[in-house]
Amino acid sequence: MNIVILGSTGSIGTQTLELLKDHTEYKVLALSAGENISLLEEQAREWKPKYLCVFHEDKAKLLKERFQSSYNRDNTLDSESAENSIHYEKKESEKDSYSPVIYSGMEGLIQLSALTEADMIVVSVVGMVGIQPTISAIQAGKKVALANKETLVCAGHLINDLLKESKAKLFPIDSEHSAIWQCLRGEKAEEVEKLILTASGGPFFGLTKDEMRGKKKEDALKHPNWSMGRKITIDSATMVNKALEVLEAHILFHIPIEKIQVVIQRESIIHSAVEFCDGAIKAELGVPTMRVPIAYALFEEEREHFKGEKLDFTKVMSLHFHPPSYTDFPALALGRTAGLKGGSMTTVFNAANEEAVALFLQDKISFLSIPALIEKAMQLHEKDWKAYPSVDEILSIERWARNCVEENANQVEA
């Protein structure tokens, strides 16, 4: 199987490549990065994909120069070496003729997602960059392993419609949605009573809003259980991440927002659960690792025979559950409001959060300003709300929401 990994230098991308080291029957056809060309070059030289893409065009140009320079250097023999036949033969056997095709920008991501020889596209880019490549892959009838929340949160209505018309298949990589997917396998949709999304509670679990006042990025980036990227770790601290997962589950599993419950499970052992009409609950348990959901998606519901760390019930353990505080973590309530409104409001919720998190990581706003700015953008968007926005409208609304956050960054009451 030929695999394309969009976002190969991020957390999911690097873990996907690590997993594939144990499955040599899978070939890496293409890799992409946003701007980390050093790691992308390292990955490329190890995996030898036919295609690469760098989202930032200036970085793509620099990467092309690196490969061209390497190719020229490794394929040019000086006269002294040429005279020495033994050294010449050695040099010939060692020379590196690897020279990938390198694309750039959104156009490049779209091209990679629809490559004729590609079987599965792993979409693990961060942010709304993932929407258009995912749509392209679905239109091309590819299998899509999706680790990009924004695609479903902002364009879920378009994705679902496209899936009905295409032979493409969508496999979720998020640990919570993978858990629900596993629990629903073999069950009847009409017998599902409730989806239960578990959350670790993040680094600020148990704190009130007042106690979170003044918290810095160094505090918010200390996740108790998971190793993730900076943006998603901040989202975990505000619980925006869980709000996004509620919206994602609503689209993926066609379950009303009202039937999706969030529960704090501190140990991150129960990754999510499903309650059925007879009161029975099925849950997926395991150690906090992305290995299982990545493998379950890549191998299309076939389980990997993995010999690494697993949950050991012979050891003493405890599971603790807590209801989330919608008062102290208002982003959860804002996410539900956006989901119930639907349409373009989910794009505003997501884009406003992305911009606010970026400002927080730059030390330009306080931690509590993040949900405050999201709420402000949602309020201002009411008059321009659209029920079924197109891709172009989604991208336009995204830009508006980001500008709205920028303009109000120093005016909100945190």
TrEMBL record:
Binding site for NADPH: 9-12, 34, 36, 148, 150, 229
Gene name linked to the record: dxr
Domain 1-deoxy-D-xylulose 5-phosphate reductoisomerase N-terminal: 3-90
Binding locations of Mn(2+): 174, 176, 245
Record organism: Oribacterium parvum ACB1
Sample GO molecular function, one term: NADPH binding
Keyword terms of this UniProt record: Isoprene biosynthesis, Magnesium, Manganese, Metal-binding, NADP, Oxidoreductase
Single GO BP term: isopentenyl diphosphate biosynthetic process, methylerythritol 4-phosphate pathway involved in terpenoid biosynthetic process
Protein name: 1-deoxy-D-xylulose 5-phosphate reductoisomerase
Function: Catalyzes the NADPH-dependent rearrangement and reduction of 1-deoxy-D-xylulose-5-phosphate (DXP) to 2-C-methyl-D-erythritol 4-phosphate (MEP).
Domain DXP reductoisomerase C-terminal: 285-403
Family: Belongs to the DXR family.
EC number(s) stated in the UniProt entry for this protein: 1.1.1.267
Biological pathway: Isoprenoid biosynthesis; isopentenyl diphosphate biosynthesis via DXP pathway; isopentenyl diphosphate from 1-deoxy-D-xylulose 5-phosphate: step 1/6
1-deoxy-D-xylulose 5-phosphate reductoisomerase C-terminal domain boundaries: 170-253
